[in-house]
Specification:
The complex is a heterotrimer of chains A (about 450), B (about 500) and C (about 900). Chain A is built from 16 helices and 17 strands. With about 450 residues, chain A is α/β, with parallel strands linked by helices. In chain A, helix 6 packs across helix 15, helix 11 packs across helix 12 and helix 13 packs across helix 15. Chain A is globular. Chain C contains 25 helices and 34 strands. Classes of the chains: A alpha/beta (about 450), B alpha/beta (about 500), C alpha+beta (about 900). Strand 5 of chain A pairs antiparallel with strand 16 of chain B.
Chain lengths: ~450, ~500, ~900
């Protein structure tokens, strides 16, 4: 792999003890004090390493325990038991499940992809991204071996409004001039978190991480001012019509909200700086017009159409809003109909909580995605939403050291990058750019059910 | 326990009671004896499940995993009320809640442990048929006729055997008496005791076990006729000599646990013994590529099969693949390449370590793949000439019956064998010294946690219980042979498509 | 001059209108395929159809008889009953009639109203298809016509579609292709019944295909004598069973080209989406159709230069991209950014036959994908005639040349040059084309170029005219006879070799032929000298030495012919009256097979009629022979037979096998102790899981050489293609005198070479026709070397320090120590013995003798400490590298 695309990770410990899945209940009463106490025989040295954490005012034993149950089954007086940890069960929400939050913490800490034994232990399927499977290749379609680095798999994508085709003169010399584009090593941009215990330190951590992995981050215009040293990697979100020439000069790309005068603003911005990339953010309920609007914006020369769902990945502000994967399929389809798909760059954000969501969004039709909440979860956010209610952040994210925070985010992206490689390797896709809308490499549960159980068992009598 | 066999002999396929190797097994209930107990031992007589036993005249710690529950215990003749001093308390075991996951619920773990101990279905209400995944097998039900179709059927003579070579090509003719054989787990990823225990148990039932990728340790030689040697993408330990030893050779193209991905065995697990068998260097990590670097097409695949057929002119060839959307094309391609067995490994199984991202996202669950392949092979007119084996999420006898009714001829298991050895799916096979319970490890101290005879017998017991269940299922369907169940989707119902599906619990008496 | 694409928007716009923009229907792929046999050749003189026959037969085991097809370009007009003018100017419409009665409706709808027809016919065929072995489905009737678009129809078409100003011919091309599309839609795809479809419709290009093996196309349609400059053929291996018509068979056409394909895409769906946005919808639903649609779009509609098309299909990446000059990088970057969604994600290999009408050039083009996962061989012969060949397997090339040379003395059974393309590379771009263009005097010339336009040539040397009789040289009695008697009496094969090698430069062809002929004659008549002649001639065949104005391909041909004649004259196993140390068995006498008796030592197998695999293959025969006590084997006239040396089992140290001819895949796989000498090039998957023994390859070796090998000593004179020694463990010791395309020693796990582990020596050289050593500029051109290896080493001759860290994904460069040199020197000495490449010469750089560590570099595994920890991601490898760099 070319060195320039490698993401360097380094172990970056948590500030707070992590919340484990289960807890050890240890009754001291009735203990025989036998010489062969199972606690000494623990394979993971859990009992030797436990301590009292002054941060959480609790025993750290559950952090170390790996649930082998040997102490539970070995104590002659049966004084040791295990239970589910209620604090763990209370983590996050239905999208940022306790499993996802814990896994994100681990990745931000180690930079490594989660590996475990004993197969899959989850639900058969679920809503949203859990209702699709990526395809793999076998025998007739070879693949490469993801993170084992056997062959280079590129995750590079470009953001740009591209020509439909190239033009050459009659002696074969290219006539098409260079168009403005931004190239990032991952199909992932950063978007500002919807909520959180944000502070200058947190913004700095995120911007530093964006710079380190050479991606870009959408930030409110006022933050762009404060973070001027990272301007190459920042995309100021210009909410109002005020145009600050100096600000625009500093940046490769800017973002504006969609609105009646959006197209006009795009041309004004492009007039100010010819090679400026302009992104339009479509928030809240895109509804059925979203796809047509995306086409319109692309036709008007917008370089990046950014659709934002709510932080759970559903269309915001509507009842029964669609999941972003369905939004992406819809937009992709309309852009194809309009023959604009190869010009447009379409990005979705909201609800991208795991590496697999990146690939699945792209297979459904997005060119790339933006992440928001995982940036905070990497900083130990518990998605408790205390901050939304005005209460104190249990892990005081606002007080982090920006360099620590940046390393955590870089670690998470490093781990995600390797997971992208794994999945792309399995699919036999060598270029992330080829993932866009490649619906031949994805299986949707509705199709599989229709082909299988609905067909075979749909009419069976009870 | 009666230990009659030396390790190199195939043990008999008989149930022998084989309790947990730990101080106490985990069950759904907790039986607590308070200090008030005066060892009158009245409880030992009151309990039909032998929860209470005396040891040296005193009451031994209760085997509460056998307890039938609170309702039972509070009946007038049972333990709680028979205790003169009121020292017995029966409650829900809190440990049970911390066990298991959606696919292998704590009920399923405990009921499998029960089968491995006793060879019988648990009586205490534990769910023993399905897990809690909310889809696939867990939403399929067997629909038994309201009345017995063939009451005259002799349950004990119901045929559960499967033919592995359905081509008339002069190669070995092999039938296995149970519709299941052991899937590949390599030496190095599991201990030699685990490996031998599985081999001996399946051999006891006249079936086979696959070596997995890690070569062919000498300790396996006595069981040559019950071993499938695997040719996997790393080609570790594959030699002409090992290919010529066996009756079945399995090409592993992919595995459900990590479809489309290669594997690695970390340096610390590459001990002297592992390295010798795999013909590598101790301490040096080993990598398996994906896919076979010599096979990039159906045509290469045929060439590959021709190669082992040239090396062993009698052996059957099994092709193990996972379940991409074109698995039906892969299947027919393997048929044309000359395979005898097509083994499809769905994406929800697996025992070895795999990236979590690969476990549920890549390739389809086997429940979809089985009918897809079966029906396609039928359409192509070649179904009768190839044996279709399914794996990847087969946990119970009911899963087996459902897989066969969907179109498979038989199944391959892996995880359930380990669960019968008291694996509790903590998912930490790869951390530190390996499996803390001594199953999937090569750490000498941890390996010592398990005894070969004990382990073999546990699996024999589980297989015995499965066969009895399968016979009961077939009996209720009025089928004299498991071959008649293949592709009978009319005997299944899916909860999403049919309302009012009757309970298929075979613990209930026939009406 | 090429059309510049200026009307692309109008053409595409009108296509889209015709497609109605309606539904972006689901992109259905009807079937998967992957394994196929593809072959093609281009020749400066027209060649008859029967010569595409032999290579097709040779590739049977790459197909399954469920689809075959051939295409021809640059045809002889006499064969078609039209004038040269009509052939060049008219569109040749070939329509497959699955239901013959639909012809009148078809003509009524799509021919009569729009075309002027110069000639039409129903293509003749043999009366009963069942006469042909392996043909189970009746091939379609073919209606053929030579047409031009009616002028008023064309005028209307131009006006309706806003194509005013476009060259009329381009508009006519577009009309023809659209008309066929409509025809196919009505008679093929929209109906439940499939009645007819257009096979081809280009100018001086023709496609025919059937459900069956490709050679039966030639037989059934009686094209044995049909002549064309360019031929391609395809054996298909579709997986789906019941195929009743050849709609999915290859080749497919755009307009003036025919494309065959070996491979399969991962991104079929997105590629279809790309095409649909440009008004193109696949009707036959295979990868191949999509490929040719891309080619035609980029070539004819957008007017892209061929280099751009190749780059769009197989993008240049990694190190190769960095090695391109800046202006190419800029161009390629633009191509990749705009075309990546349409670039087929491999593995694939295309062979295209086409007519470049603007320059009256017929072209044969082969393109391989970046990962180089499909086998491919190119060959060129430049003698009295010129022929270029592209095949998926070398034996198909050999078969073509053999059958050509048997009938026409201007051809040679041996080409001057054989090579592999390096996909997506900065060196050759992974594509080569053979252009047949007019000389101006009614004859044609053939030239070969790579993607970048660099010409591939062979040294200009005198071809041999085999029709000239060999005459006895004047000095026969005075010098030759005594010399021969002396040399043969010595019992030293080396002296036979020296006799030829030291004198050949001064001999003319007559003398050379005479000498080799006499050697053969002596061997056939005097059992005493049999051995010394066989071994001596084998050395002549294996080694390179000065030949002055003579071609090496001629020498090879002469020696091989003579050796085969000697072998065929040996006593047969069934012949009890004669017996010697050699014993001959062939397919006919294989059942008379028995143990060796008395003086019999060597079993000589005439492989020509044996099956390439299965119970009737020669590999199974010799493995049985081993069980009966035979230990020495010569197998000759191989035609791609596989698995030589397999199945013998362990401990075969006493066995030696010599292979002559086109040896096949999997040779020497799993051998444990024996030695195998391959006198010529070797194929794919050689030495898989090899455990112990000696393998000497006097030529190149194909893909995936020594995959999963555990040991053995191996010497390769030439190059190893892609992926040599992947996953090899234990202690293999290998000398590759050439280089490898890419992915050498990936996941090598061969321990510490200094403590008994394995290694590979790469010398990075080639020998020219006269045996002179030429070192490559880049000793290893690939982007990946020793990736993720955890043990073993590569010793590479790299005095100019060309190998860079970026090529090593996991390994690291280290200095060659004295211990390393002591370890490898004996292997280089053995290499000298096998191939005559002196160690001294290896250590000489620009004329100066250097020290070993100045010439050889060692690539070793990053210390095991890293790999013994947790490499769950490649990060550990990287951090180890940074750590190593930091210290």
């Amino acid at each position: 792999m070319p060195r320039k695309y490698h993401i360097d990770v380094q172990a970056t410990p948590n500030r707070y003890p992590v919340i484990g899945r289960s807890g050890i209940v240890d009754w001291g009463e009735g203990c025989l004090k036998c010489a062969q106490c199972v606690k000494y025989q623990c394979v993971y040295n859990v009992y030797r390493e436990r301590s009292f954490s002054s941060d959480i005012l609790a025993d750290t034993i559950d952090q170390f325990c790996k649930n082998c149950f040997r102490c539970v089954q070995g104590c002659p007086k049966r004084l040791i038991h295990k239970t589910l940890n209620p604090e763990w069960e209370a983590l996050g929400d239905d999208i940022y499940t306790p499993e996802i939050v814990s896994a994100t913490w681990t990745q931000a800490e180690t930079g490594k992809i989660p590996v475990s034994g004993a197969g899959y232990g989850g639900a058969f399927s679920g809503p949203g991204f859990d209702s699709m499977w990526t395809d793999m290749s076998e025998i007739v379609r070879p693949t490469r071996d993801g993170i084992h680095g056997r062959e280079y798999i590129s995750t590079v994508v470009e953001i740009s409004n591209r020509p439909f085709n190239l033009e050459f003169d009659s002696v074969g010399k290219i006539r098409t001039g260079q168009w403005p584009f931004a190239r990032i090593p991952l199909p992932i941009m950063f978007d500002f978190p919807r909520f959180g215990d944000l502070s200058e330190r947190v913004w700095q951590a995120m911007a530093l991480a964006a710079a380190e992995i050479d991606t870009m981050m959408v930030v409110p215009a006022e933050q762009a001012q404060a973070l001027a040293e990272f301007s190459h990697h920042l995309v100021p979100f210009l909410e109002d019509d005020r145009l600050d020439g100096a600000l625009i000069e500093r940046h490769r790309m800017v973002q504006i909200p969609d609105g009646e005068n959006a197209i006009e603003r795009v041309s004004r911005l492009k007039a100010m700086k010819a090679d400026l990339l302009v992104s339009v953010r479509i928030g809240a309920a895109g509804g059925p017009d979203l796809a047509a609007r995306s086409a319109e914006l692309t036709r008007a020369g917008v370089d990046l159409v950014h659709y934002t769902a709510d932080e759970r990945g559903y269309e915001a502000g509507v009842e029964n809003g669609r999941h972003i994967k369905d939004v992406a399929r819809n937009v992709h389809g309309v852009l194809l109909q309009e023959r604009l798909r190869d010009q447009a760059t379409f990005m979705v954000s909201g609800g991208i909580a795991m590496a697999e969501h990146v690939i699945k969004s792209m297979l459904c039709g997005a060119n790339l995605v933006a992440v928001d909440m995982p940036l905070l979860v990497a900083l130990e956010c518990r998605v408790c939403r205390n901050c939304v209610a005005g209460a104190r952040c249990p892990v005081q994210i606002s007080s982090i050291d920006p360099r620590w925070g940046s390393r955590r985010i870089v670690n998470l992206m490093g781990a995600w990058h390797n997971q992208l490689l794994e999945m792309m390797g399995a699919m036999g896709i060598r270029e992330a750019r080829r993932l866009r809308g490649e619906q031949g490499r994805v299986m949707f549960i509705e199709d599989l059910e229709e082909d299988t159980f609905a067909r075979l068992l749909g009419n069976s009598k009870s | 326990m009666r230990y009659r066999n030396v390790w190199s002999e195939v043990p008999p396929a008989e149930v022998v009671n084989t309790p947990s190797r730990f101080d106490h097994a985990i069950g759904p209930f907790n039986v607590v004896i308070s200090d008030a107990c005066d060892h009158c031992l009245k409880c030992t007589a009151a309990c039909p499940e032998k929860v209470f036993e005396s040891r040296g005249g005193k009451l031994a710690p209760p085997k509460d995993h056998l307890c039938l529950g609170i309702d039972c215990s509070t009946k007038s003749t049972r333990c709680v009320r028979s205790c003169p001093v009121g020292a017995i308390r029966v409650g829900i075991n809190p440990d049970a809640r911390a066990l298991g996951d959606r696919r292998w619920t704590s009920d399923l773990l405990m009921s499998t442990w029960h089968m491995a101990e006793t060879g019988r279905v648990p009586k205490n209400g534990l769910e023993y048929r399905i897990g809690g995944s909310g889809g696939g097998f867990d939403k399929l039900r067997l629909v038994f006729p309201r009345r017995l179709p063939r009451p005259s059927l002799d349950k004990d003579s119901i045929d559960t055997s499967v033919t592995l070579n359905r081509r008339n090509d002069g190669r070995h003719k092999i039938d296995i008496p149970i519709p299941v054989y052991g899937g590949g787990m390599s030496f190095g990823s599991i201990s030699q005791i685990t490996m031998l225990a599985r081999i001996r148990a399946f051999a006891a039932w006249g079936s086979f076990t696959c070596t997995g990728e890690g070569g062919y340790p000498e300790a396996l030689y006595p069981f040559d006729d019950h071993i499938i040697t695997q040719v996997a993408t790393g080609l570790f330990g594959v030699r002409e000599e090992t290919l010529q030893r066996v009756k079945i050779i399995e090409f592993k193209y992919a595995q459900g646990a990590k479809p489309g991905l290669g594997g690695h065995l970390l340096g610390p697990k590459v001990t002297e013994a592992v390295a010798r068998i795999r013909e590598t260097v101790p301490g040096s990590s080993l990598f398996s590529p994906f896919p076979f670097h010599s096979v990039y097409s159906v045509e290469d695949h045929k060439k590959h099969v021709d190669w082992v057929k040239a090396v062993n002119t009698k052996a059957l060839v099994s092709v193990k693949v996972s379940t991409p959307s074109d698995v039906d094309m892969v299947a027919i391609g393997s048929y044309h390449a000359g395979a005898h067995i097509l083994h499809i490994d769905g994406s929800y199984g697996g025992t070895g370590a795999a990236p979590d991202v690969a476990k549920k996202n890549i390739a389809m669950p086997v429940e979809y793949a089985i009918p897809k392949v079966h029906n396609f092979l039928v359409e192509e007119g070649v179904r009768k000439e190839i044996t279709l084996i399914a794996s990847g999420g087969i946990r119970t006898a009911f899963d087996i019956a459902k897989a066969i009714a969907l179109g498979a001829d038989g199944v391959v298991t892996g995880t359930s064998d380990l669960v019968s050895l008291e694996c509790l799916r903590c998912h930490n096979c790869e951390s530190g010294r390996g499996c803390a319970r001594g199953i999937a490890t090569t750490d000498l101290e941890l390996v010592g946690l398990m005894d070969l005879q004990w382990a073999s017998q546990r699996i024999i017991n589980m297989l015995a219980c499965w066969r009895e269940q399968l016979r009961e299922i077939l009996y209720r369907f009025g089928l004299g042979s498991i071959r008649e169940l293949v592709g009978r989707t009319d005997l299944l119902a899916h909860l999403d498509y049919t309302s009012d599906v009757p309970d298929d619990d075979i613990r209930d008496q026939l009406r | 001059m090429k059309y510049d694409g200026s009307f692309a928007q109008q053409i595409i716009g009108s296509r889209v209108r015709e497609l109605q923009r309606g539904g972006f229907s689901a992109n259905l792929k009807r079937e998967d395929e992957g394994g196929c046999g593809v072959t093609g050749f281009a020749c400066n003189v027209p060649v008859a159809g029967r010569y595409i026959f032999e290579p097709s037969v040779c590739m049977h085991n790459r197909g399954n008889g469920k689809g075959g097809g051939v295409a021809a370009a640059g045809m002889n007009p006499d064969m078609l009953g039209v004038s040269r003018e009509v052939l060049d100017s008219h569109y040749l419409l070939n329509v497959a009639l699955l239901e013959p009665q639909c012809l009148s409706a078809l003509k009524e709808g799509f021919v009569n109203p729009v075309f002027d027809v110069a000639r039409e016919e129903l293509v003749g065929h043999i009366p009963d298809y069942r006469e042909l072995e392996g043909l189970d489905v009746r091939p379609p009737d073919i209606w053929r016509a030579f047409v031009r678009v009616k002028p008023q129809v064309l005028k209307l078409f131009i006006e309706e579609n806003g194509l005013q100003g476009i060259p009329a011919r381009l508009a006519e091309d577009e009309f023809v292709s659209r008309n066929s599309l409509r025809l196919n839609r009505q008679f093929y795809s929209s109906l439940g019944e499939k009645e007819a479809f257009v096979l081809s419709h280009g100018r001086n290009v023709m496609i025919m295909k059937i459900v069956g093996y490709a050679e039966n196309v030639v037989r059934y349609y009686k094209m044995d004598d049909f002549q064309a400059h360019v031929w391609i053929a395809h054996q298909r291996y579709p997986t789906r069973g019941r195929v009743w018509h050849p709609g999915g068979a290859h080749p497919f056409t755009g307009l003036n080209e025919a494309l065959v394909h070996n491979g399969d895409f991962a991104n079929y769906h997105a590629t279809c989406d790309y095409l649909k946005q440009r008004g193109l919808e696949p009707l036959f639903m295979t990868d191949t159709e999509v490929s040719v649609m891309l080619f035609d779009l980029w070539n004819r509609v957008y007017g892209y230069p061929l280099e751009v098309i190749i780059e769009a299909l197989a993008p240049t990446g990694e190190l190769d991209f960095d090695l391109l000059p800046p202006e190419k990088q800029e161009l390629y970057d633009k191509i990749q950014m705009t075309h990546l969604h349409a670039s087929p994600d491999g593995p694939w290999f295309f062979i295209i036959a086409r007519n470049i009408t603007e320059s009256n050039t017929y072209q044969l083009l082969g393109i391989t994908d970046t990962a180089m996962l499909r086998p491919q061989v190119f060959a060129l012969y430049d003698g009295e005639v010129q022929i270029g060949l592209i095949c998926s397997e070398k034996q198909a090339i050999d078969a073509t040349l053999r059958s050509l040379s048997e009938d026409d003395p201007r051809f040679s059974p041996v080409a001057d040059k054989y090579w592999n393309a390096r996909g997506g590379s900065s060196s050759d771009g992974g594509a080569f084309m053979f252009n047949v263009s007019p000389n101006g005097n009614g004859t044609h010339k053939l030239e070969c170029f790579d993607k970048f336009g660099n010409q591939v040539t062979v040294a200009p040397r005198k071809p041999l005219d085999v029709t000239v009789e060999v005459i006895r040289p004047d000095n026969h009695e005075s010098e030759i006879r005594p010399t021969l008697t002396d040399v043969l009496g010595s019992d030293e094969p080396e002296r036979v070799f020296r006799l030829v090698s030291e004198n050949a430069a001064g001999w003319d062809y007559n003398m050379l032929r005479w000498m080799i002929g006499r050697l053969g004659f002596r061997a056939r008549t005097q059992p005493k000298v049999l051995n010394v002649v066989i071994e001596g001639l084998t050395m002549v065949l294996d080694r390179r030495f000065p030949l002055a104005d003579k071609k090496r391909s001629v020498l090879v041909r002469l020696v091989v012919d003579e050796l085969f004649e000697i072998f065929r004259s040996l006593p047969r196993i069934s012949d009890a009256t004669q017996m010697g140390s050699y014993c001959l068995v062939d397919f006919a006498t294989r059942n008379d097979f028995r143990p060796p008796i008395s003086v019999e030592k060597t079993l000589v197998v005439d492989a020509s009629d044996f099956r390439p695999e299965g119970d009737d293959c020669d590999a199974v025969l010799i493995s049985d022979a081993y069980q009966l006590g035979w230990r020495r084997f010569i197998i000759f006239d191989l035609r791609g037979q596989r698995f030589e040396g397999c199945g013998f089992g362990s401990m075969t140290d006493t066995v030696r096998i010599d292979l002559y001819g086109s040896s096949g895949d999997y040779t020497a796989s799993g051998i444990d102790g024996m030695q195998i000498h391959i006198h010529g090039n070797a194929q794919d998957q050689i030495g898989q899981i090899m455990k112990r023994g000696l393998l000497v390859i006097h030529g190149d070796v194909g893909q995936c050489f020594m995959y999963g090998a555990k040991g053995g000593e191996v010497f390769v004179l030439g190059n190893a293609a892609g992926r040599p020694l992947i996953n090899a463990a234990g202690h293999p010791r290998v000398v590759i005198n050439g280089t490898a395309l890419d992915f050498l020693a990936e996941s090598f796990m061969a321990g510490d070479p200094l403590k008994g582990g394995g290694f590979v020596i790469v010398n990075g050289l080639t020998l020219d026709e006269d045996g002179k050593v030429i070192f490559f500029d880049r000793p290893y051109p690939g982007s990946n070397l020793f990736s993720l290896a955890s043990g073993g080493a590569i010793y590479i001759r790299d005095p100019n320090k060309i190998i860079v860290d970026e090529q090593l994904n996991g390994g690291r460069l280290a200095k060659l120590s004295d211990a390393d040199w002591d370890l490898i020197l004996p292997y280089l000495q053995a290499n000298e013995k096998h191939f005559g490449i002196p160690v001294d010469e290896l250590l000489t750089v620009d004329g100066v003798r250097r020290l070993p560590h100045e010439v050889y570099r060692k690539v070793e595994a990053v210390p095991l400490a890293v790999l013994t920890q947790i490499p769950e991601t490649d990060d550990s490898v990287w951090s180890a590298k940074s750590a190593a760099a930091g210290h």
